[in-house]
Amino acid sequence: MRTRQDLARIITVVVVLVVTAVGVAPNAWAEPEPNDTLAAATPTSVGVSGIPDATIHASGDVDFYRFEASQAGTYTIDVYDVAAAMGAMCVIPYRTDGTSMGIDCSGGNGRSNVLRTVEISLPGTYYFRVSTNYTGRSGTYKIRVLPSYSQGLTWDALGEPNGSIALSEQITVGTTSGRSRAIDPVPSSVAAASDDKDFYRFEASQAGTYTIDVYDVAAAMGAMCVIPYRTDGTSMGIDCSGGNGRSNVLRTVEISLPGTYYFRVSTNYTGRSGTYKIRVLPSYSQGLTWDALGEPNGTWDLARSLALAENHVAAIDAVPSTVAASDDDIDWYRFQTAAGSDYSVTTSSLASTLSGSPYLTVLDSAGSPVGASSSCATPWGICNSITFNSSLGGTYYASFRAGSNESGSYTVCATRSGTPCATRYNGYQPLTPARILDTRTGLGAPKAVLAPGQSLALQVGGRGGVPAAGAAAVVLNVTAVSPGAAGYVSVFPTGAAASTVSNLNFPAGVTIANQAIVKLGTGGKVTLTSSAKTNLLVDVGGFYPTTGGTFTALNPTRIVDTRSGLGAPQTRVNAGGTLAIQVLGRGGVPSSGVGSVALNVTTIAPAAGGYATVWPSGLPMPSTSSTNFRARTTVAAFVLVKVGADGRVLYSPSTSADVAIDVAGWFPTASDFVGTSPARILDSRSGVGTTVGAVPGGSVVTFKVLGVGGVPTTGVKAVSLNVTAAGPTATGWLTTYPSDVARPSTSTVNYLRGGATSNSILVKVGADGRVALYTSATSNLIADISGYVKTS
């Protein structure tokens, strides 16, 4: 026997079927009244658009909606931007047969008043009712039905809507896969269930330890909270602390099975909003990568490896005032030990800014402390040193932190007792340019003009930032000052046979400079020889290490001379003509595996003033210059150039000239130096990279070098530039240097009034991704980029 309830349900279903058959005029952008029954349900499409202008009218009004579930899965009914006067809202979903799936009057966050998840097993038409949770309330709201992330949900630029697991945004595991996101503010005009909460998901490809890193949190937000969830959606516990440095929260998650895992990010305080960044990091055993200073290494599981007996230069990072940090930066390291042996961990060479009480701790492979030190008797020397016996063997750990609100560089080393620590450099080491020779003042050599044919052995190792040991080659800028006659300077390793090629060519009475990469010879010295009477200046800009470097310096060897027919036809290169130069397999350069070469290109007796361009074969000629010259004046230019696929580089002068080319070294294809097609990134004549107009004498221009001309936006420590003074109003010089240091007393280009004079430089990049260029006289300034040095 049927009850009254059964009969009522049958009648409701019949009405629904009749109305569905007859059809209700669809309107995806408005909520027509009356829609206060299932039969009169307003249709809405599945997606982020929904119905943006719905209203609960007089007391007792309810609104019914229907949507088509095209497939089985999870759908979310989102009631959002609810007028503040209405307060909490209620949602009741109904199955295709009109039976209720239960009421929900809570569960929203941010601008969402209710986020009701509906599990649907069969495709079809589903319904839901929206009403207020309080009598006598009325007002506007918005409504939408969202598919789950696996059913084609789309998000906006800040990852919204992502207010539930079903709406979670995908994060790729890795150091560089972070996202910039925000806890959205909730306007006072909106009745919100709670502050905004953001959900994310990541794929754990293997069992292991993963770290959820919430960093660069806007200071106004304060502490953040993270809740990880297992694949079945169960919580793994909340964490509202545990970050350090720029990381507000570093939540470690132990995962036993591969799969999809989730986490929620929110503030720890009500009413807060602002931006943050989020990433999921694998542990060091799962392929974590670090930057040049070893970050991120803020936990045991992110610890960076220390090779025994090698000094590692690192830094306690500053935490900007714009960032809400849980604690000052802490650096973690790990190293391998043999059971029963004695080891020591030492921090030294602390920056003067680390003047408080830095703290070093060592833990054994079980995580138990074996020693701690917080005594800094000599803040700028060896600060902390812990010696211990490895009773367990295996991987030991060390953590280092500074005093409160301190930051700066330091050196750390782990070594077996009795083995001294040594510095190991990773690739090219750019320096702030420093003058190490000036024969006019007696700096680096006796105060005397070099006589024709005289040689000078210059000590480079241990000066200007170059280490006394461990440097294989140096980048020098060599300047001839007021030579007594036309001539040239050769630079070569001390102890090697005297060079027969030139690094710098000069006319009588003209001060001129050129860059060179030179192998260090006996005792860390290089030898300079001048064919004419002159004073000499030498500035050092960086060095290549004996180990960990990727540049092979050669004794300079001539591979092209059009005057004699060496390596090219015995004829001048025509104006606008192109000379293809085979560099692989010649002058000590291997026949394969070479990415770029270091060349000294000398343009000889050009018919008129102009310029020449050197670039990789196989590419169009760029609108740049590698050297600038005056009529009938022989000028040498140092060039770092990428090698074309056929093993060649190309040379083209703007006017007819002879050319001689010497090779000074090469970089392998897998190198920290990456050659690019030359590109102009600064030209004050046209406003490229700066404002239009000549730069006044005594002024500095800083210009962007990252993210332009084929250079990445991050991961770059130096760039190869050709800088030019064009049309200077008086004799003077240019100085090129990192944008974040004081201008050094060095020169890159020396110029005469009028014309154009250029020189190449491999210059360190400032912390802001820029380089500074100073001119002593009013001049237009030009910079072309031809490559960069990676941080690792």
Walkthrough of the structure:
The chain has 792 residues and is mostly beta strands. The protein is built from one helix and 50 strands. The strands form twelve sheets. It has a five-stranded mixed β-sheet with strand order 17-19-24-21-22, with no helix packed on it. Strands 23-20-25-18-26 form a five-stranded mixed β-sheet, with no helix packed on it. Strand 21 (359-363) and strand 22 form a beta hairpin. The longest helix is centred in the N-terminal third of the chain and has 19 residues, at 4-22. The protein is elongated and about 105 Å long. The relative contact order is 0.07.
Question: Summary?
Answer:
This protein is mainly β and 792 residues long.
Structural topology:
Blueprint: H1 4-22, E1 42-43, E2 51-56, E3 63-69, E4 73-80, E5 89-94, E6 112-120, E7 124-132, E8 139-147, E9 169-170, E10 179-183, E11 198-204, E12 208-215, E13 224-229, E14 247-255, E15 259-267, E16 274-282, E17 304-305, E18 310-316, E19 330-337, E20 342-348, E21 359-363, E22 369-373, E23 384-389, E24 394-401, E25 408-416, E26 422-423, E27 429-438, E28 455-459, E29 471-481, E30 487-493, E31 504-506, E32 512-519, E33 525-530, E34 535-545, E35 552-561, E36 579-582, E37 594-604, E38 610-616, E39 627-629, E40 635-642, E41 648-653, E42 658-668, E43 673-683, E44 699-704, E45 716-726, E46 732-738, E47 749-751, E48 756-764, E49 770-775, E50 780-790
Parallel strand pairs: 1-3, 9-11, 17-19, 18-26
Antiparallel strand pairs: 2-8, 3-7, 4-6, 4-8, 5-7, 10-16, 11-15, 12-14, 12-16, 13-15, 18-25, 19-24, 20-23, 20-25, 21-22, 21-24, 27-34, 28-33, 29-32, 29-34, 30-31, 30-33, 35-42, 36-41, 37-40, 37-42, 38-39, 38-41, 43-50, 44-49, 45-48, 45-50, 46-47, 46-49
